[in-house]
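Write out this protein's structure.
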Amino acid sequence: MKTVAFQTYGCKLNFSESSDISRQFIEAGYSLVDFKGKADVYVINTCTVTQLAEKKCRTAIRSSIHRNPNAKVAVIGCFSQLRPEEIAQIEGVDIILGNKDKHLLLQYIETSTQPLVQGCSRGEVEPIRDDKNFVASFSSDDRTRSFLKIQDGCDYFCTYCAIPFARGRSRSNTIAQILTDVDKIAAKGMKEVVLTGVNIGDFGRHQGETFEGLLRALEHSSIERFRISSIEPDLLQNSIIDFVASSQKLMPHFHIPLQ
């Protein structure tokens, strides 16, 4: 049996996506092992919010190559999206995928016989800025809590922030599909769901749905508790505050970024 190990940095969104990708490997017959041990495939899901985050990613890449020089090493995520040419300079990296294609990682691992960098050797990745495709994911490696991705990307393009360039423009799942995912999570015995995204207050804007509408729909779902991971202050409406205050399932807590 082939083995695969994951190391994830950054936000809750990254953790939900790593869990989703790891399930693909397990369903394909791989055994999930600890990243600090020896594996046939190492996956580093990266972050690029700070220089320290990038440094940790580079350290993880080199340590995995050192542990098993014969392993396939795949680097995915935000650091890969913004600085693939830098990662391509690290000898021993086999695959670099940005956020647009990282969910195809298993396909690349299973089909590539030569080191690939997004299918080429020049350290290029597929642009994501105008990508409208939403890839759903949720974590399932915690016995009680799941991080559920409901939204991705951001349309704000703040001067200090690289996220719109790393994850693209705002896009969302549908309320109907989210309720289906919630049922899958409940079937695994988990009691709590954390709603995650880059800018979740912007949920549904491009498809005629709203974040408040999603919260109201979740009130009648099969999960006991929901948490809102973070919400921008300009999108935290009074009606959302009032509904959360009266809800039987939503935890009465807001994480509000005030940069």
